[in-house]
Amino acid sequence: MNHIPITLSINKSLFSSPVWAVIGVAVIVAALLPILNLSFPDGHALHVSSYMVGLVAKFMCYALAALALDMVWGYTGILSLGHGVFFALGAYAHGMYLMRAIGRDGVYQSMLPDFMVFLDWKTYPWYWAMTDNFWYCMALVILVPGVLAFVFGFFAFRSRIKGVYFSIITQAMTFAFMLLFFRNDTGFGGNNGFTDFKRILGFSVTAASTKAVMYLMTLAILLGALVLCRSIVTSKLGRVLQAVRDSESRLMFIGYDPLWFKLFVWTLSAVLCGIAGALYVPQVGIINPSEMSPGNSIEMVIWAAVGGRGTLLGPIVGAFTVNGLKSWFTAAFPDLWLFALGLLFILVTLFMQDGILGLLKKMKRSKEEVA
After folding, report:
1. What is the phi-psi region of residue 193: left when phi exceeds 0, alpha when psi lies from -120 to 50, beta otherwise?
2. What is the full DSSP assignment across 89-126?
3. Is the distance from CB of 301 to CB of 79 less than 8 angstroms?
4. What are the residue ranges spanned by the domains of the chain?
5. Which residues are within 8 A (CB) of 86 and not within 5 positions of it... i.e. 6 or more apart?
6. Residues 88-133: pLDDT tens digits?
7. 3-state class of 202 per DSSP?
8. What CA–CA distance (Å, rounded) separates 287 from 194?
9. Which pTM does this prediction carry?
10. DSSP-derived 3-state class of residue 194
């Protein structure tokens, strides 16, 4: 029997030597920010403010979440509007440890968090067991989003749910979790969530040195995730994932079962999102159910689209670009940001379908043709 060929292109040009050189310079510059913050006093020409260090750290967490989303949307063609729930679950898993650390620090009269004392709870719920152990909570950061994604994905993909229908049910999932976590009786702080963290592994969360370590760890994990994702998309597995995106029916015709490939990348994406949330919560200092809002998941899609989906670097560029604009816009025109975000997405959809990186590639090709 003649096999039907499937054209699979891997965008290796995004990881050519010049691009890796740019990435290397960007990593070095990013790594210098907390060092400059610690080495020079406020007012010095080389001093970088703690606010700027925290802002870049938050953007890196968003970039990791956008990269995770791009693996399922850009490379596999699965549009998720519910990745915010995986991000938030990872943050809550780490937040549980941070809240237990407050009790050990002697801040509370009771060993219970204040929201549990307010509800007149006498002991922790069973699912808080062992959350005073840092490594157990780190395991939860991976397992909770991973298991949820695996179970959800298994039934959805086995039922051949795809396209807009899959997007709708993922949005319904994150909305349901948001409503659940808003309830006070679930044991996750209700509307206020977790905040006022004091220590992590015995070190003050607010100390400049601790923030610098968390910043550098976030940078290292983002770079490691980028390398991991590149190794996947440039492998045979990556070619199959792109075949799922381009022609799933033809892939099935030549003998592949898309279920397990989709389930793998979907679960991996959820785990990366959970890790992003775990890195986010101690650096920002709060996690509440609003992180699960459908709007947050849609913003992740916009990050990937603006930067250029299916390019790995694009979602990172998009996350920094959009959130940089958001930080400036909400300060200058706080009531107009959502309108600006909607306009940005419309313009990208109409005129820059390949995002910022796609536009740069077109400009490069035009220059080469002129030359």
Report:
1. left
2. HHHHHHHHHHHHHHHHTT-SSSSS-HHHHHTT--S--G
3. yes
4. 16-370
5. 68, 145, 148, 149, 269, 270, 271, 273, 274, 277
6. 999 999 999 999 988 665 444 457 888 888 888 888 999 999 999 9
7. coil
8. 5
9. 0.91
10. strand
Spatial separation of the C-alpha atoms in residues 351 and 360, rounded to whole Å: 13
CB contact set of 143 (below 8 Å; sequence gap of 6+): none
Given the structure tokens 């030549």, which residue do they identify? 254
Per-residue pLDDT, 224: 96
- Report long-range pairs for 124-132 (Cβ below 8 Å, ≥24 apart): 124/187, 125/187, 127/187, 128/96, 128/100, 128/187, 131/96, 131/97, 131/100, 132/97, 132/100, 132/101, 132/104
Closest CA to 288 of 52, 49, 85, 92: 92
**Of 32, 24, 31, 19, which Cα lies nearest the Cα of 219?**
31
Q: Are 37 and 212 in contact (CB under 8 A)?
A: yes
Q: Read off the tokens for 224.
A: 């490691």
Distance CA 284, CA 324 (A): 16
Residues in the chain where the model's pLDDT stays below 70: 1-17, 103-110, 368-369, 371
DSSP annotation of 334 reads T
Neighbours of 131 (CB within 10 A): 20
Q: How far apart are CA 318 and CA 355, in angstroms?
A: 8
SS3 278: helix
Q: Please, what's the b/e burial string for 299-331 (b: 16 or more CB within 10 A of its CB; e: otherwise)?
A: bbbbbbbbbbbbbbbbbbbbbbbbbeebeebee
Give the number of other CB atoms < 10 A from CB of residue 7: 8
What is the C-alpha radius of gyration for the chain, rounded to an integer number of angstroms? Answer: 22
Strand partners of residue 306? none
Joined together, the tokens standing for residue 265 give 């990348």
Q: Is 200 helix (H, G, I), strand (E, B) or coil?
A: strand
What is the model's pLDDT at position 296?
A: 92
Query: How far, in Å, CA of 33 to CA of 39, rounded?
Result: 10
